[in-house]
Design brief:
single chain; 111 residues; alpha+beta; five-stranded mixed sheet; 3 helices
Length: 111
């Protein structure tokens, strides 16, 4: 069974969990379903999850959608350790903004 871990700030906060608490029940349910599948060792594929290996080895984008819009949760697989949920945000544009990308890469380095 694969361990799922959430990125924690130096003060012990979990930005991904805090973000998801403010999302709809549908988004939270889709997220929990994806987590259960990842923990069981399943590989998620499109349209639910998209690999972003061109940005960072092991990085994936979890793609969640409800009637209010789309949410992205970034996670990466750290070999021999766990799957880390590092960043989440509400999608508003086609492209991943430099700001969001910088947050993802910074948090990956900190894990």
């Amino acid at each position: 069974m694969t361990k799922i871990k959430f990125y924690l700030t130096t003060s012990g906060r979990s930005p991904v969990e805090e973000f998801l608490q403010d999302c709809s029940q549908d988004i939270r349910s889709y997220f929990v379903d994806a987590i259960v599948r990842l923990e069981a060792g399943h590989t998620l594929s499109m349209p639910l999850s998209k690999p972003l290996f061109n940005i960072h080895k092991g990085l994936h984008e979890l793609r969640l959608k409800d009637q209010h819009g789309q949410v992205r949760v970034f996670y990466f697989m750290k070999k021999g350790d766990a799957i880390y949920m590092v960043h989440a945000f509400k999608k508003k544009t086609q492209e991943l903004s430099k700001r969001e990308l910088d947050v993802v890469l910074k948090r990956i380095r900190e894990v």
